[in-house]
Amino acid sequence: MSKEAANLVEVTIVNHVSAEIDCVAETVWSFVQEQYGKGHKFRSLGYSISALSAHPSAYLGGYEMISNPPGEDNRICRITEFDPENMTMSIRADYLSPAANGMIVYATYRVRKVGTQVRLDIDSHTAANIASVENGDGEAVFADTMKTITEQFYKAMRTYLDEAKRQLKSS
Questions:
Q1: Longest dimension (CA), the chain
Q2: Region of residue 16 (phi > 0: left; psi between -120 and 50: alpha; otherwise: beta)
Q3: DSSP label at 116?
Q4: How far out from the chain centre does Cα 52 lie?
Q5: Shortest CA distance to 8 belongs to which of 129, 165, 144, 139?
Q6: For a Cys staple, 126 with which of 12, 13, 75, 149, CB 3.0–4.6 Å?
């Protein structure tokens, strides 16, 4: 950790979301591969997506995503697990923008048949550097900050999942 980052605390934030989707499992699995594995979801949000096909650490696939305007939210996303038989894919996203403070997100997407429905699970583990508070209430303030950040990440994942469900339902 650099000297200017000395007041940052490395934390792990874990979130799990899932949704039952009235759709064929293979359709949901294809959706996950396209939207997250190839970055189409982010392209639809205005990001520039470039494949990492020649990058050795992206041997299962991956892409670089650059925000518009560039520099605000740039990431390298690598597929770290790809199991079509079990309809499971994991991705590591390295956040490159200075404001991200070296954040890394590991996300796993699983499609499961549950009775007549399909279940899409997303599990996320985020390694982040969060600013600490140096005063008498530092621990309590930091705990509140972490609770707020965890809830924000959960809401963002829930929004992603709800949007996926809407898109799949309309297809």
A1: 55
A2: beta
A3: T
A4: 18
A5: 129
A6: 13
| Token representation of residue 31 | 């959706």
Nearest to 108 by CA among 4, 5, 10, 15: 15
Tell me how many degrees the CA angle 15-18-19 measures, rounded to the nearest 5: 155
Neighbours of 4 (CB within 10 A): 7
Question: What's the distance, CA 18 to chain centroid?
Answer: 14
Burial group, residue 158, by CB count within 10 angstroms (0-12, 13-18, 19+): middle
Contacts 24+ apart (CB under 8 A), 94-100: 97/67, 97/71, 97/72, 97/73, 99/72, 100/73
Q: Write out the chain's pLDDT in tens, 171 residues.
A: 443 444 788 999 999 999 999 899 999 999 999 999 999 999 988 999 999 977 788 889 999 999 988 778 999 999 999 999 999 999 999 999 988 989 999 999 999 999 888 999 999 999 998 887 665 556 777 788 888 889 999 999 999 899 989 988 877
Report the 10 Å Cβ neighbour count for 138: 11
Rounded Cα–Cα distance for residues 139 and 145 (Å): 10
SS3 category, 84: coil
Measured distance CA(70)–CA(78) in Å, rounded: 20
Task: Map tokens 């520099």 to a residue.
Answer: 71
